[in-house]
């Protein structure tokens, strides 16, 4: 499935090549746990509308579609961050390609956090997100 993401803001940017990002938010201290895993790719997209698109390519067994709102909210959060040099993307496709969920421990908020981690990583590689990685 592909969705158009409508973003506003004066600072637009586009990626010039594909960049992958992985987000792992797994906290298993006490019940209930927290579990959200997502892998995405940010790549150029030559569409006539010059917009940004989210391509949901992951199977329902890997990440149920009910977590899509958390993913979109995570993308918006990263673009609103001061460390991001763009508040909107154009000619760009964000592909959700893999992930995992836990029947009991996965929640919308877990995918929000996992998406933030994955999207920051991909945009950092693309030179659009300037905050250094916490591992660095």
UniProtKB/TrEMBL annotation:
Q: Where are the transmembrane segments?
A: none
Q: Is Nucleotide-binding set as a keyword in this record?
A: yes
Q: Where is the Translation elongation factor EFG/EF2 domain?
A: 12-127
One Pfam family this sequence matches: EFG_IV
Organism name: Massilia forsythiae
> Could you tell me what this protein is called?
Translation elongation factor EFG/EF2 domain-containing protein
Sorted alphabetically, the keyword list is:
GTP-binding, Nucleotide-binding
Matching entries from SMART domains are given as:
EFG_IV
- List the molecular function annotations (GO) for this entry: GTP binding
Note the InterPro entries from the entry.
Answer: Ribosomal_Su5_D2-typ_SF, Ribsml_uS5_D2-typ_fold_subgr, Transl_elong_EFG/EF2_IV
